[in-house]
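Figure-free illustration: sequence to structure, shown twice.
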Amino acid sequence: MPTLSDTAHGDAATVAEIVAGLLAPQAHTSPKYLYDSLGSRLFEAICELPEYYPTRTEAAIFARHGADIAGRIGVGATLIDLGAGNCAKAASLFPLLRPKQYVPIDISREFLNEAVSRLRQRFPDIAMTALALDLSGPFVLPAEVAARRRVFFYPGSSIGNFAPHEAIAFLRRVRENATADGGLLIGVDLIKDAAVLDAAYDDAIGVTAAFNLNMLRHLNHLIGSDFDVRQWRHVAFFHAEESRIEMHLEARTALTVRWPGGERHFARGERIHTEDSYKYTRDSFADLLAQAGFMADDVWTDAAGWFAVMHARAASA
């Protein structure tokens, strides 16, 4: 069983944020803590699952409408990949977009650097500037990121991890870093049958469960806690009233989790809320973009209307 560690590897702000979430009446964590190096690899595996439709559906949209998307954006832009992960989605568009500079951003520094190292070998003519940043708070792009024609790329419906008011705040921060001649290319998961959604976030072989449970390992590393993964189970479901998938970790038995300077008792069945994934209609997301300072000017979907890729330009101030 894991034992209490006197050493917390997270910085003081990270430890404080995690501990505050664990001690809240409804315990919760930020979904960013799902993505340590192993978590990032597990998410790659999730994207290969038959139940997880967003990745393949979005890829089909890019394959079918790539030329139109490239025509809308134009070649030679500064392509800024938000939450880049393994950079594969952006790389698949390089032949069409031919960016002058590629700027992948991800919270997992080690995973990002490995991905960019491989990508530089494949595309030596594209300047690449990898940035390990936490995008959940204010951020300013450094001077080495070209200011001309900044196109922000946010695929995979990651925007759904934010509550709508948080999504607006996040997109406003993106807008602050955008240029008048820039824009946003974003993937949006659309509302559909709840059974399809439930299966996508609770697959038959348990990869998503492993992804969610791995966060407890990560928390042990960051705050020196003694979570025992075997004492928890993965729970995911669609909350129709809130139009969101919810992911939780549920205590299998009554237990106490300890960390240096604190502890929390969990009753059997008590949950830690780890992630949300909000679903939208085309119109509701276009309205959200407008509130953030962007104007949606094109949208591409699959035939079933399960997923959308939207392009928006930076609206005039």
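We now fold a second protein in the same way, so the two outputs can be compared directly.
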Amino acid sequence: MAADDEVRGTTDETRGDEIRGTAQGTAPVPLSVLDLVTVGAGRTATDALRTSVKIASLAESRGFHRYWVAEHHSMPGVASSSPAVILAHLAAHTDRIRLGSGGVMLPNHAPLVIAEQFGTLEALAPGRVDLGLGRAPGTDGATAAALRRTERLNEGADDFPEQLAELTRFLDDDFPSGHPYARIHAVPGPIQSTSPGGVQSPHRPPIWLLGSSGFSARLAGMLGLPFAFAHHFSAQNTVPALDLYRESFRPSAVLDAPYALIGVSALATDDEKEARRQVLAAALNMVRLRTGRPGLVPTPEEAEAYEFSPMEREFITSWNANVIHGTVDEVRTGLDDLQKRTGADELMLTSHAHNADLRLRSYELIADAYELTATQEA
């Protein structure tokens, strides 16, 4: 990426504060929430979205730093196909917690559309919106082709740096004179401040790059952007990717030092046995997804009755080895150990359970364990 295509427009001295969180209570680093808006068997998408509002409200009241929603498509058990719509709803039910995408899959969308969506979110919730971007489709190849209206799926991933540069220019409204898009403006956005009588918010959603391999880690480092790694489904790559990010990092107007969070699958329960039951059900859901049979998150009873093949059993063992679950003491120890091992600047927790009340309870238990207390600052 050429130097003049790098991320600009972020010289506001508060930008770093919008990215870096502050550890609350006895937590070693800021704790946040990643929501996949999971739909369990016997439940509806409406039920799942209502649970998301409850979790976001709990997260805000207990001092979690941010709440992100991930983009997925064509998965019956995941109702987060439209992060911007969900975030607008959550913005209406919260006051302080940062809200963002974890992430929007940039190749699935025109950069101008994303700039308009997140400009609108910024107008709805000034100073507390994050724009996390990924380059994977968040679905299978056929669905990606339907989203992108093309069969050339590699093209979107390969063009990611150029798409990122275009999106950034729309957010900052600074295409150079003579550029084909110089007279096109993302609204809400900076153009409103230069119009007669215009006043514009000083905030612009900070861009994060997301990844599960080295590509986005290196790019985030080169551009001096914050980086979020999907440890919850690519644990073997976590330390190498974070090392690559830190080694590649170049100070920018956005950050003067690396800042990396990792997504962590964690479920704390009052009963250790119940944690194992819920995690097994979530793992069965993943088995079905990986074998082309996506569905609703099964009940623990269905998972216990399921006859796993030897290969599926091996996958379950490997998958659950990276899910921190059990009593709250076990979960706290696991989170502390993971943070020390990776040096992550922030832990973003995602809970997978068929039972919505158990997901809520898990975040409550973790907040209690770390003595989290929300500040009252807007």
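Summary for the second example: The mean pLDDT is 90.
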